[in-house]
Design a protein that fits this description.
It is globular and about 80 Å long. Strand 5, helix 8 and strand 6 (201-205) form a beta-alpha-beta unit. It has helices at 6-12, 40-47, 62-75, 86-97, 112-121, 137-143, 166-175, 188-191, 229-232, 236-239, 250-254, 258-271, 277-288, 290-309, 328-334, 350-360, 390-395, 412-431, and strands spanning 79-83, 103-107, 128-132, 148-154, 180-183, 201-205, 219-223, 314-318, 342-347, 365-366, 376-378, 402-406. The mean pLDDT is 95. The protein is built from 18 helices and twelve strands. The protein starts with 5 loop residues before the first helix and ends with a helix. Strands 1-7-6-5-4-2-3 form a seven-stranded mixed β-sheet, sandwiched between helices. The protein is α/β, with parallel strands linked by helices.
Length: 432
């Protein structure tokens, strides 16, 4: 459906016609664990990757398949793979590319949970990570080693919405024969498509904007189909016969979708972080309204940023739409229609004021999620990024005064009114 626009593809890709089994217009929930083979040869062909149908629910499901195809189409990739969470999606991509003794280059301002995965969880398995200032291209390139297997960045950093130059970083990585993976959770395919800017792999926590309602965990990996695994010479697990799967070469069997096929056939098969059919269905509902919701998120964010920029109790406002922001030029280039509805500000009065401000909000919900239709708030220093050391927090631009907002789709006037009354409630603290 490449001839159609985003909004149309978000509604139709993967089920262009009614369900053939039931004539249902909506995508059915195929709540099953397993599938009947027509005969013994058919079963053998399925397991040998000669027939691309369903085998077992841990690998594929028809409801899941529609969701995968739809997100891949929206991102401009060749294949999608849905898994149980965004964390699982990130972990699988890293495990597919890096082995013991290998190395990853990662943006230092990524989500704290991802940083912890790379720094602590995967380190005992022999995967080393260098965290770099993604705005410093020389630092990015100098961090690359002979053992580097991946450059990992986020479209918009968490929590301050900093923006790396994805085009430039991709050129650097590709010159060294290394793929680039971009966590596009905050960008969404509606606002930004990393594959068009040189990325090879796109990852989403579908829990966030794609789901949109704070109801459903899920993650998606999109294989861009752009990286030449053979020419790189760094990834024999894709290009050479794999003993774990009948000696198949995933490059030969799956072509441009070799990465997605490998993760599904090996990692997902053996470690099982599969998505449920019901969760895939819920995420499909979110996908269908993604464009409509994002337009409202953007509209509200512009108004909130304008309000905060004029608020005397705001010490520093971290939003790339501001002309003084160091990433403003990249924001204008990558997000011409707006974006970055998850961002931070620093409040005068430090931690005490931040806590009081958060505790006095009424519309905003204090919880560890973002990109919900409802407006959300959190104190990242003590919650979402609490696993970082004081030095790492400072390096990521997170202080005791930092408040993270996720702007929802409520009436903008009500959102701003809620912020205003919370600032009034902490004015005495700041004055003291």
């Amino acid at each position: 459906m490449t001839e159609y626009r985003f909004e149309t593809k978000a509604l139709h890709v993967g089920q262009e016609q009614a369900d053939p089994a039931s004539d249902s217009r909506a995508v059915p929930i195929y709540q099953t664990t397993s599938y009947v083979f027509r005969n013994a040869q058919h079963a053998a062909d399925r397991f040998g990757l000669r027939d691309a149908g369903n085998i077992y629910g841990r690998l594929t499901n028809s409801t899941q398949g529609v969701f995968e195809d739809r997100i891949a189409a929206l991102e401009g990739g060749v294949a999608g793979l849905a898994v149980a969470s965004g964390a699982a999606a990130i972990t699988y991509v890293i495990q597919a590319l890096a082995r013991g003794g290998d190395h990853v280059v990662a943006q230092k301002t990524i989500y704290g949970g991802t940083a912890n995965l790379l720094k602590h969880t995967l380190a005992p398995f022999g995967i080393d990570t260098s965290f770099v200032d993604a705005q410093n291209l020389a630092e990015v390139e100098s961090a690359i080693r002979d053992t580097t297997k991946l450059v990992f960045i986020e479209t918009l950093g968490n929590p301050n919405s900093d923006i790396p130059d994805i085009d430039a970083i991709a050129k650097i990585a590709h010159a060294h024969g290394i793929p680039v993976a971009v966590d596009n959770t905050f960008g969404t395919p509606y606002l930004f498509r990393p594959i068009e800017h040189g990325a090879d792999i796109v990852i989403h926590s579908a829990t966030k904007f794609i789901g949109g309602h704070g109801t459903t965990l899920g993650g998606v990996i999109v294989d861009g189909g752009t990286f030449d695994w053979v020419a790189s010479g760094r990834f024999p697990q894709f290009s050479e016969p794999n003993a774990s799967y009948h000696g198949v070469s995933f490059v030969q069997a799956a072509g441009p979708a070799a990465l997605a096929a490998y993760i599904r056939a090996i990692l997902l098969r053996d470690t099982g972080a599969c998505i449920s059919p019901f969760n895939a269905w819920l995420l499909l509902q979110g996908t269908e309204t993604l464009a409509v919701r994002l337009d409202r998120h953007i509209e509200n964010t512009k108004k909130v940023v304008e309000y905060l920029a004029a608020q005397s109790l705001v010490e520093k406002l971290n939003h790339p739409s501001l002309p003084e922001h160091p990433d403003h030029e990249l924001y204008e280039r990558y997000f011409p229609d707006g974006g970055a509805s998850i961002f931070t500000f620093e409040i005068k009065g430090g931690k005490e004021a931040a806590y009081a401000f958060i505790d006095n909000l009424k519309i905003f919900s204090l919880l560890a999620n973002v990109a919900d239709v409802k407006s959300l708030v959190v104190h990242p220093y003590d919650t979402t990024h609490a696993e970082l050391t004081a030095e790492e927090l400072a390096d990521a631009g997170i202080t005791q005064a930092t408040v993270r907002l996720s702007i929802g789709i409520e009436a903008a006037e009500d959102i701003i009114g809620d912020l205003d009354q919370a600032f009034q409630a902490v004015s005495d603290i700041v004055a003291a």
